[in-house]
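User: Fold this; tokens only.

Assistant: Input:
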Amino acid sequence: MNTTFNKMIAEALVKHRAGQFAFLQDLVRINSTTHQAGLFKAAEKVAVLLERLGFEVERHAPSKDRFEDAGRHPMQNLVVRRRFADGPVLALVSHLDTVEAVTGWTYDPFGGDIRDGMLHGLGALSGKGHLTAQVFAILALAETEVPLHGSIELHISFDGENG
């Protein structure tokens, strides 16, 4: 990739920085702690956020029996695909479930508070932060019309913390 494309991508990312923070805030505000019954609803909220950004989202829900037999709550995984042209597929993986919100937080773990340019909350650095970076990188590539061959997929799960 040449310097001109690198500069265009960087400028697109800077231009959409506020949107990146808003998206990450929305993700952090979704309770996706691993051992709770709301993971299916959490996945649906994430899917809606991605659709608002123009992505088509595939929802993949394994059989509920599989989870009940294992003593786990039902959830669904998401796949987002951006095809640029014929060619290979690059798949990026993120898990959006988080550990439990234990006591002792300085900020609300589901608040997405921004202080001194840093966003605080469960998953802000880990899975939810990773997904935000991936989403906005794809949007920047699409906006700048970088001539890429292939597709980028985002594989989003809600079982990274429980194995």
